[in-house]
Amino acid sequence: MQINTSDSLNYAVSQGIIDLSYVRDRVEMAKREEYLAKHPYKIWRSKDGKWYTYLPDGEKGRVLKKRSSEKRIEDDIIEYWKEQTENPTIEEIFNEYNDRRLELQQIAPSTHWRNQQCFNRHYDEFGKRKIRSVSAEEFSDFLEEQVPRFNLKAKAFNNLKCITRGMLKRAKKNKFIEFNVSDVFDAVEVPKNSFNRCTKEDCQEVFNDEEMDLIINYLIQNQSLSGLGILLLFATGMRIGELVALKWCDFSEDTVKVRRTETCYLDSSGKWRHEVKDFPKTNAGVRNIVIPMDFRWLYNSIRQYSSSEEFVFYQNGRRMSESGFRHKLERLCIKFGIVKKSPHKIRKTYGTILLDNNVDERLVTDQMGHATISITEGYYHKTRRNAETKTRIISDIPEFQLNTAKSNQKVTKSNQADIEKTLNLQAL
To answer: Are 328 and 227 in contact (CB under 8 A)?
Structure first.
């Protein structure tokens, strides 16, 4: 018969084999030794018979403690380190929460870095407070104050709430706080009109027909690997991170299989890291993009420039990163006097073209890698027409056209009536 550990212990206690009071004493002694081992300062007895040591202090660095016995000075040391262990700072809670998620591969290094940047920005002073000394109301007030302090947009505020909720849930699990985490966010009151709104003109968001023609024709006539990559963005609407992570096994003349993306972050040494993740930005991002027939020559042209058997955009002994394509597009915008736009604006242009041409909704979401058409409509559909084209479209609407023939007829009748009236007056 097999007996588990719990049953064995219960049996030993019930039979008097194990003395619980003795076990508790041993555990208490072990804890005391653990706390005393944390203490970085020596304990000494002075000539006056008193016992002395230093305790760390946030403002003064350290403070001198004096007690009448060695046990009492050790009790002070244990109380201090027990409080430090069982009442960490908000910053310590966050670091443990953020690092643990990275360790468990719940987040990518880039997300870990962004979380850290968000925390450093907002919790510079507040983060130094002990977790047990902060109430739910104080956390709510703190969150509300960040909106006007940093002129936050709604997305940035949501990121702040996300890391705050995560670390508070971790603190609750470790029994550092007693209040309900949901109470903090239920009490936050930030009206929508409080957020900073960045309004951009459509000319800043998408390329119009004239701009597209200038860039595409130039890149065809002046071919380079980065230029061909930009052409592939115009033809497929891929994200720039998906483009630079593209492998030859995913690429053919008529389709592009999107299976991965690039992630960028600052490592602990302060250097930028560019790594490939074996999955795209979202689940819907896994897709097979159809390449228009007039752009299928890109496959063979890119083959001639790439020196890799694995990655499509590989040059000078390394995989090309997002920055190379961004700088290339920026230089093209400057060359042609176009409002500077990022590669993501090519993606918005692509989505707008599909919607403007009434492409089937399912095909649009498949090509774009969106879960729903509302995402494409809400965030990617812009106006690509210039002022002249808008004027022509509006002017061609029948309701906005003056009927010249009718107007002339009305004027003629009016003149005739005036003439007849004048003749009648002369006759009188």
So the answer is: yes
